[in-house]
Amino acid sequence: STYRMSGYNTLGSRQSQTSSKTEVQDQEPKLSSKLLAGVCWQSAQQELEVAKVLVHSFPAQSVLHSHCAAEQVLKYALLETCGLNASEYCGKRAHDLIILMGQIKDRPPDVSQQRLKRLSDAFDATRYVAFPPPGGSLDPPASSFGTAQADEAYDIALLLVEWAKVTHPMYHGFAVASSSSGASNPPGVVRQI
What we know:
Elements: E1 2-8, E2 14-20, H1 21-27, H2 34-54, H3 59-80, H4 86-90, H5 97-102, H6 113-125, H7 147-167, E3 174-176, E4 190-192
Antiparallel strand pairs: 1-2, 3-4
Helix pairs in contact: 2-3, 2-7, 3-6, 3-7
């Protein structure tokens, strides 16, 4: 399939081109950013904490937040090393943990591709009923997830965070910014120290 992509050339003049989606995704420039990596790192930490709190009370939501933590920590590692393009950062490919992990050279040994795929597949399954809906009754997606799935999802996300602490130690250089009065800024505000 093809689509039209508009943009600007290096001189600032508007340009258009038609390409296949795969060609454009492969040609998209990759961005490496320690600042954006730090934001992803903090997001991963926050998502992991939320997932932990929800494991027993709201397992489906815990699975969703574990997925988000895993996604953010992988993006952190990629932004720190080889970079991400726009579709990997916030497009359809942005939520596919297999695609993100596939770009990392020093992969965590304790996270199998099968476990990562289950967590990746759960991203939509925690939020949406199958489409088109199967015959019979329609249960909310949350009813398909229990504590066992939430525990497994949390364990995967935690393994990825622990792996990133060891293999990508840049996270030590970021802290939640605070004002001179000692009060901390809203979550997600970072500064390099």
